[in-house]
Design the sequence.
């Protein structure tokens, strides 16, 4: 900086431009993991992206502390859908494994949200859909309540409260509700979900989504999203 006779402001801009170019390359490379069946590859790849941005932020503070510039965000050619898919995969990775995640995971998710320029409402929807997906998969595993317990036992709801979509304001969609009801009926009919376990599933549903299953069903009926045939699945 001194040898190039750059002001702190100019140095900050040069640094940001370099970080931006490197960020595009790293994110584009990470997106190639979306082709793989194992979502963990995407989570690990995005973890590298977040690590890079956190290190860059620390270095920026050492170079140009106090200088305010436009935040560095992804400026490459990847479509928004792929960025949202990577964000969702990374955010979801902490939902069922919160106990083993870094304490600053919430901050890492927020940083990724900013880097990918995903607004708060969209981020809430993506995270909630990830929770719903994991809940569905736990039920579809055929383990009944055991499958739900495996998903829930690592979840720290207090810790998750600061993550997008975990405040209980995001609604489960009619399609997802119907899928859930169908799966529960299959499990009940097969005998893998006794009445006492059904009660526990409903309790866990309320803990995850912020409303009871009965309340969600009544609201869906009121809005015309759920017919009598769907309700009778339970």
Sequence:
């Amino acid at each position: 900086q001194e040898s190039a006779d750059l002001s702190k402001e100019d140095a900050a801009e040069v640094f940001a431009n370099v970080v931006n170019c490197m960020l595009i390359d790293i994110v584009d490379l990470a997106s190639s993991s979306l082709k793989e069946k194992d979502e963990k590859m995407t989570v690990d790849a995005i973890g590298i992206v977040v690590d890079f941005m956190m290190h860059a932020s620390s270095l920026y503070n050492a170079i140009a502390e106090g200088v305010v510039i436009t935040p560095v965000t992804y400026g490459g050619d990847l479509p928004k859908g792929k960025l949202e898919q990577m964000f969702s995969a990374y955010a979801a990775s902490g939902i069922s494994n919160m106990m083993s995640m870094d304490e600053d995971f919430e901050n890492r998710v927020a940083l990724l949200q900013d880097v990918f320029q995903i607004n708060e409402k969209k981020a809430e929807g993506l995270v909630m859909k990830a929770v719903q997906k994991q809940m569905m998969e736990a039920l579809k595993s055929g383990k009944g309540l055991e499958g739900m317990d495996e998903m829930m036992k690592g979840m720290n709801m207090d810790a998750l409260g600061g993550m997008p979509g975990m405040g209980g304001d995001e609604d489960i969609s009619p399609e997802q509700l119907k899928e859930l009801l169908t799966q529960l009926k299959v499990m009940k009919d097969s005998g893998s979900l006794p009445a006492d376990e059904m009660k526990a599933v409903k309790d866990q549903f309320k803990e995850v989504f912020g409303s009871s299953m009965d309340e969600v069903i009544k609201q869906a009926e009121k809005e015309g999203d759920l017919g009598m045939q769907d309700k009778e699945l339970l």
Notes: The chain has eleven helices and no strands.
